[in-house]
Every structure is written in structure tokens, then in C-alpha cells.
Amino acid sequence: MTTDTSAEQTPTASPHSLLNSSDPAVRFNAGLDLVRQGDPTGIPALIEALGHESASVRLFHAGKALVQLGQPAIPALEQALQSELPQVRIAAACLLYQIEPARFAALLPYLNAALQSEEQQVLADALHFLSLAAEEDRQSVVPALLTALRSPKPADDLEGWATDQRTTVAIVLAKIGEPREPIVAALVAALQGAIPAVRWGAACGLAEMGTAARVAIAALTATVRNEEEEGPVRVEAAYALAVIGDPKGETLPVLLDAVQCSSAWVRAFAARILGAMTAPPTPFEEPTYFDAITRALMGMRGLPHLAESSARVVTALAQAVTDPDFNVRRNAVAALARLESQASAAVPTLLTALHTADIGPMAAETLAKIGGEEVVARLQAALQTENSTTAAQAAYALKLLDGTPPADHAVAPLEPTPHHFYCQVQVTLDAEKIAAFEALYQATLARGQGETVAYTLPYPKHEFLRYLVEGKGLFLHGSGKPDIDVLRPFRYGTDAADHGNVSGIYADRDPIRPVYFAVVEGKRCFGMTNGYFNLTESGEHSTKGDLPCNERFYKLAIGVNGLCRPFWRTGMIYVLPPDTFTYEKEWTSRQPVPPLLRVPVTHEDLPLHEQVWG
């Protein structure tokens, strides 16, 4: 392996000298630093980055800096419009529009051309451009969007729903809304098309249009009832039907059937929708549609109310509490909790559920929300049962009802279980393991820098990784790419927090999260969550990674629709020296880093792979 150790990569080199680096990542970061300081000499490096494979590099890092620079960037962006690369042309057009919105008419040909592109990244950048455009400007591209939605091009990845841009096209068309008839007709046709991701996007779009899409009710009903259809398509169609249809006459019969269908995924969401529609309206909810991503984060809101139908809904949800699938049971109990006193007919079922380890605590909380003298009496009776779990959950419910523990029944603190969102990974590194791990580490280094570990030890790989972190002070980076010789400081994603959006190499002093990043195919997941924290002696949360791993709590999750896709992949852990990493709420290096060694991993090497939530 060849590694560049020249002075151009040292921390003392000036940004201007780094613009001449042979490494594109070094040039990019130098240009980024200069442009952010208002120095236009960094512009060429950022224009070069407009052709990068990552939209985050093109439009978030480079693009944001060029837009903030403003007028001095315009000549270079105008020249980029003449590039032979469609990716560069549409990125330049998008940035020029952000600097001077009055240019929209002149940039429209570039936008229309990109909307017809067969390249998903070009189409994605065009849709990003469109998302920034004024409402009146979007009308002019409806014909191009309709053509893009009807494209018969096979999906690049049949399981990568989040990366098929036609799903976004469908939602964008719905948000534009006019002319209504051709848009609704196109969405209904797409709902019945050959590609599951596009059908899902069409259902999202129809829900976005609301009652303006009433002609789609028959097609949506057929989709929800189709046992051969993909679960997420049926779920989104059910949600669209709930938004568009008459609650009692058109939606309720379909949902009552869905909560008993063969798909556990559909049953779980049917329970959620029934609970949302039957729950008493609150002053905090507005009758507006929340898009698919928002619903995944915030829950379903804004659905029409199912007046005078609570008895039928409670019966269906009570039956779902005994469903063989844990996720269905969990969602049914949560739905009953939303109904509060309306769910009193489900009390016997919930009392029976108190003895279960998975939904018992939720059943106790739901009983407390239902409340009433009868519930209190039956919970007090449950305290006398010989089943200690039932008695403990009954005590928990009574505490929630009146705020004081019942006599002779102390309410124990919750213990970590596989059903809790935050889990621990306990490891004991004894002398025998440490000796084996050190020998393997030294033997791999002796074969050369960057070599792959030949792992044959009888211990889980995450224990070896923990030794490298805690025993050797090394950093870990997880990736789906198995052949990286030098990690380069490009940020390929974006983060909800500013500190997660530095253009650099991200690494971790943790043995679990890098494995998660390595073995989860992010393009199929509709978003990823990878939280962890340590509890300090003062009870505060720490995420720096400088406290013992055994005292760490993890929450690993993906977007809920990702759970229906085969999202596991093989991956690689790159073990990195700590020299160039600095900490500002994330460990980041702004310099290229060659790995010391690499460790192949699969999802079975992730000790919490059965606790990845949606």
C-alpha cells in the first residue's frame, strides 16, 4: 500500500497550498475552508466537487458554501452550466437559483433536462432544485415530472425504495397538486404499476393530495386488501384511504379486515391507524397531512375522526393484543392507550397481558390511562396473584394512577430487557482473551499496514474490537466498502446536528456502532439512528466514548419501512490510528487516514442485531 505522507497533508500547511494537493479530498476541504472565510480562491475546488458521487458533498458542503459566498461564485457556476457532465450542470443550476431566484426561467431548460435523466443522482439533484423553487415556478415542470413518473426503467435496486427517485417524483407532483386530474390519474396508474417502490410513492402522493384524490378510493381499497402486495405499499395505501375516504363507510371496514390479514406488518399499522382515528381529538392536532418521513418520526396525525365506532375498534384492538407477532401486540396496546376510557371493554385482555415480559409494562400503562374504579379494583385484586410479574405490573399501574406505591408492593425499577429501546453489551476481557487479542493484533500488523485480520478466535469479533478501542486506544470506522486503502475526508451523509456535518472522516471509540454502520445498507433504510450514552457518576449523559463500554446504553434503529427490506450487508471495520482525530461532539479527522488493519463483519457480528428497531 502506498501512503502519501508529504507536507501538503500536515496540519501546518496553509489552505492555499493545499489547493494544489494531488488528493481531491484535501483540495476540497481546503477550498471549503477558504470559501467559508469569504476567500474566492477556493471556488475551483468546490466547482470540481459538483461532480462528486455524493449529494452531500455536491449540494450540502460545496453547494452551501458557494451559495453563502454569493455573487463572487456566479461566474464559475455559469461556466459549470456548460460542463459535459449532467451532474455538474444540474448542481450548478440549483446553486445559481439559490443565489439569484429570478434566474428560474433561464435555468428551466437545465431542470427539465435533468428531470428526464436516467441517472438517479441527476434526477435527485433536479428534485432538490425543485424543492427550493417558488410554488408558481413548480407548475412549469409538471409535464416533465409526469414523464419521469411514467418511466418504465427498471429499478437499480429493487429493494432500495428510498433511492428510486420516482417515489419522490410522485410526492412532489402531489404537493404541486395542479392540474389535478392528470396528476391524480398518473398517481393511480403508478399505484397499479410494476415496481413496488413506485407503487409505494404513488400511495404517499395520493395521501398528500387528500380528498382531491377521491377517485382513487377503489384502487386504494384494492391495494390494502391485496395479500400479494408488499407490506409497506399496503400500509401507505391504508393511510391514504384513511385520509381520503369516508371514515365509517369506506375506511373502517377495510382497516378491520386489515388488522386480521396475513401480514404482520399490515396488522401492526392497521392497529396504529385505527387508534389514531378513534382517539379523542386533542387541541394539539391539526387536520393536515404529514408526509411519510414525518409520520415515521412523530406518529400519525391529522386523520378524520371515527365518531361512534369505538366499540368495534376496541374489539378489534383487544383481539390484536393476543396476536402471535410482538410488534402487532405492542401497537395494539399503544392504540388502546390512545383511546383512554373508551377502551374499557379491553380491560380483561389487558389484565391478562400483565404477565407477559414484552407488553406487560405497556399494558399496565394503558390500564392506568383507561382508569376508573373498576380498573383500580381489578388491579388491586391482581396484586394477590401468585404470578410475581403480574403483581409487579399491577403495582406499576396503580402507582401511575395515584402516584403512590400500594402497600406491601414496592415498584421495582425497570431492568434492561431485549424489549427496551436502550440495551447494553456486557463483556469481560479476561487475561486469556487479552493475550489472544494482542497476539492477533501484532500478527496482523506484522503482515503490513492495512492488512485484513484473519479472525479465527472463539470470541465474538466485537470483543476484539473493544480491546482495540480500550486496550490500544485506536479508532474504528465502519463501511460497506471492503477495499479502502486510504480513508479520505469527504462527508458522504448529512446529520441532524451541525457537529455531524463536518467534511471529514468520522470514527468512533466504540466497538458497536461502527459494526452497525458497516452491516446496515443505508440506502434501504429510510434513515438510521445510532444513539448511545454513558451515565456519568453525576447522572449525566456522555457520548464522548471515554467511559467504559460496559456502562454504555445503545439504541440502534432504522426507518420503519426499512424493516421490510433486506437491509443487512457484509461490511468492513477500518481500524485507525488516533493521531489526527479531534473531538467536537464527534471524532473527526480532516486529513486522509490509512487504516492500520481491517476486520470483515456481518450482521451476526453485531451483538444487538435482534434489537434494531424501526
Notes on the structure:
This protein has helices spanning 15-18, 24-36, 43-49, 55-69, 74-80, 86-99, 104-115, 120-132, 135-138, 142-149, 165-176, 180-191, 196-209, 217-225, 231-244, 247-258, 264-278, 292-298, 310-320, 326-339, 347-353, 360-370, 373-382, 388-402, 431-446, 461-470, 513-519; strands spanning 451-452, 475-479, 505-507, 528-535, 541-542, 552-558, 571-576, 582-583, 587-589, 597-601. The protein has 614 residues and is an alpha+beta fold. It has a 4-stranded mixed sheet with strand order 1-10-7-2. Helix 2 packs parallel to helix 4. The longest helix has 16 residues, at 431-446. It is flat, with a radius of gyration of 27 Å. It starts with 14 loop residues before the first helix and ends in a 13-residue tail after the last strand. Residues 1-11, 284-299, 410-420 and 493-501 have low confidence and may be disordered.
What's a quick, concise take on this entry?
The chain is α+β, with helices and mostly antiparallel strands. Helices cover 48% and strands 7% of the residues.
